[in-house]
Specification:
Shape: globular
Helix content: 40-55%
Structural class: alpha/beta
Distance between the termini: 11 Å
CATH class: Alpha Beta
Strand content: 5-15%
Radius of gyration: 18 Å
Order of helices and strands: EHHHHEHHEHEHEHEHEHHEHHHH
Number of strands: 8
EC number: 3.5.4.2
Catalytic activity: adenine + H2O + H(+) = hypoxanthine + NH4(+)
Number of domains: 1
Enzyme class: hydrolase
CATH topology: TIM Barrel
Largest sheet: 8 strands, parallel
Number of helices: 16
Strand order of the largest sheet: 1-2-3-4-5-6-7-8
Family: Belongs to the metallo-dependent hydrolases superfamily. Adenosine and AMP deaminases family. Adenine deaminase type 2 subfamily.
CATH architecture: Alpha-Beta Barrel
Organism: Kineococcus glutinatus
CATH superfamily: Metal-dependent hydrolases
Bound molecules: adenine, zinc ion
């Protein structure tokens, strides 16, 4: 079996705020004079025991209070890249949650410019390509999302697309139909979290009403044979996050994860880390955990890596380059 860390990877489901390791959180708290509701790194890490998505989100939003300046966002992005590059990361389309920052008085431009500078340095140092996907918080009023899209006009050229995240159940995709239509009209790519905790109907709605090009998570689709056939027929990429699904108790154990069933149904599945600082691993760790728990073969790992390249928003030339890197790995 091959070293999975050398497999070239694209990561399509990564919340940059979810890469905030406890050590960096305390460093930034000290730098910015922000008080965290935990005594130290150990106490914060001990709080990473989640019952469900909401219990995670409560901690996730509380901890990101330490992110205040453009430099903080650059440091955060670079720290993520430093950990992921040795695990084979070659391309990343990273999510950020502007409303979680502008609501605390941080300027939208500082968030985007800070992350953008991290990505620029990542390209310069390691040749990693990528871009930013701005997510709307679905548990906040739709008007906030619309205002956020308007505010993004100053940085339109820095964005690949828009997404939808945060507490899913009770906040169906269709609420955001107009905002997504406006984003599409601007030429932005569109994706949405759907079918993480909520039923398959949310996945259908994301496709039919929002017009998404990828579904983030989407694992609940295994409970709907018609939907699975459609996802396979249309080759809709699913950005699956196996370690996240275990930590947020979407599945009891990795051994029971539906990844293999999705692959067997012919769905364009990709593997991603979601919020690696909170869920126990970066993108390479996810691939390795799948090998250990469910016997992911080298051929299946390569297929997941190809799927991620094909499902990415990279331009055709970059896709061809990345696919060639995957095939070179297969040829070994
Ligand atoms: N797994 C997840 N689901 C929904 N919103 C999120 N925000 C960060 N991680 C998330
Ligand atoms: Zn996510």
């Amino acid at each position: 079996m091959r070293d999975l860390d050398t497999l070239p990877k694209a990561e399509l489901h990564l919340h940059v705020e979810g890469t905030l390791e406890p050590e960096l959180a305390f460093d930034l708290a000290a730098r910015n004079g922000v008080e965290l509701p935990f005594a130290d790194v150990r106490e914060l890490r001990a709080a990473y025991d989640f019952r469900d998505l909401q219990s995670f989100l409560d901690l996730y939003y509380a901890t990101m209070a330490v992110l205040r300046t453009a430099r903080d966002f650059t440091d955060l992005t670079l720290a993520y890249l430093e950990r992921s590059v040795p695990q084979g990361l070659r391309h990343v389309e990273l999510f950020f949650d502007p409303q979680a920052h502008t609501g605390r008085g941080v300027a939208f431009e500082d968030v985007v410019d800070g992350i953008g500078e991290g990505l620029r340095l990542g390209r310069e140092r390691w040749g990693v390509t990528g871009g930013l996907i701005m997510c709307f918080l679905r548990d906040q009023p739709v008007e906030d999302a619309a205002r956020t899209l308007q505010a993004a006009a100053t940085r339109r050229g820095s964005l690949l697309g828009v997404g939808l995240d945060s507490a899913e159940v009770g906040h169906p995709p269709a609420l955001f139909a107009d905002v997504f239509a406006a984003a599409r009209a601007q030429g932005l790519h569109v994706v949405a979290h759907a079918g993480e905790e909520a039923p398959p109907a949310y996945v259908r709605e994301a496709l039919d009403v929002l017009g998404v090009e990828r579904v983030d998570h989407g694992v609940q689709a295994v409970h709907d044979a018609d939907l699975l056939r459609r996802l396979a027929a249309e080759q809709v990429p699913l950005t699956v996050c196996p370690l996240s699904n275990v930590r947020l108790r979407v599945v009891d154990r990795l051994e029971e994860h539906p990844l293999h069933r999705l692959l067997a149904a012919g769905v364009r599945v990709t593997v991603n880390s979601d919020d690696p600082a909170y869920f126990g691993g970066y993108v390479g760790d996810c691939y390795r955990a799948l090998r250990e728990a469910v016997g992911l073969s080298d051929a299946q790992a390569a297929q997941l890596a190809r799927n991620a390249v094909l499902g990415s928003f990279a331009d055709q030339a970059r896709k061809a380059e990345l696919l060639a890197e995957v095939e070179a790995w297969v040829a070994g």
